Amino acid sequence: MGTRCLGQITSQQCNESTSKYVNLESQAVRKVAPEYPAEPGFHVEGNVTVRIVINKKGEVVSAKAICGHPLIMAPAIKAAARWQFQPKLIKGKPTKNIGVIVFVFKDVNRDRGN
User: Fold this and answer.
1) Nearest one of 26, 25, 29, 28 to 103, comparing CA atoms
2) Which of 5, 12, 28, 114 is the most buried (most CB within 10 A)?
3) What percent of the chain has pLDDT above 70?
4) Which helix (H) or strand (E) holds 53?
5) Residue 113 burial (10 A CB sphere; 0-12, 13-18, 19+)
6) Taking the domains of the chain in order of start, what are their residue ranges?
7) Distance between CA atoms of 53 and 38, rounded to whole angstroms?
8) Which residues, 6+ apart, have CB-to-CB distance to 50 below 8 Å?
9) Which of 6-10, 48-52, 100-104 has the lowest mean pLDDT?
10) CB 68 within 8 A of CB 47
């Protein structure tokens, strides 16, 4: 997996292996935005891709960040775990689903003067 340096922390960059999953954002019936860390001096931006497993009820039962900056992975995972989806139907029966959500983080601390 490729990496790139953002400051002193190495970020896991997304590539073809992470794009094998379907982006499930459009199938969500409830979305929760991640909270940007509010620590003064924290200035990280970028995308975090979270792989999710959804049960037959449409609930997220597993969430794992597969690429993005390590300092913003935890808020992305926490938000993804609270999403709700329309259950995937196969032949009219609900089934589990696996895919990704991509969260885009903007540096809100820059606007606050931190």
Assistant:
1) 25
2) 12
3) 77
4) strand 46-54
5) exposed
6) 3-112
7) 29
8) 63, 64, 65, 66, 76, 77, 80, 100, 101, 102, 103
9) 6-10
10) yes
CB 80 within 8 A of CB 52: yes
Q: How confident is the model at residue 5 (pLDDT cuts 50, 70, 90)?
A: very low
Locate 75 and state its tokens: 């808020």
More confident residue, 3 or 107: 107
96 within 8 A of 87, measured Cβ to Cβ: no
Helix/strand/coil for 26: helix
Mean pLDDT within 11-18: 60
Q: What is the pLDDT of residues 46-75, one digit of tens each?
A: 999 999 999 999 999 999 999 999 989 999
- Identity of the amino acid at 54: I
Assigned CATH class of 3-112: alpha beta
Q: Which of 24, 30, 72, 16 is nearest to 48 (CA)?
A: 72
Coil, strand or helix: which one is 46? Answer: strand
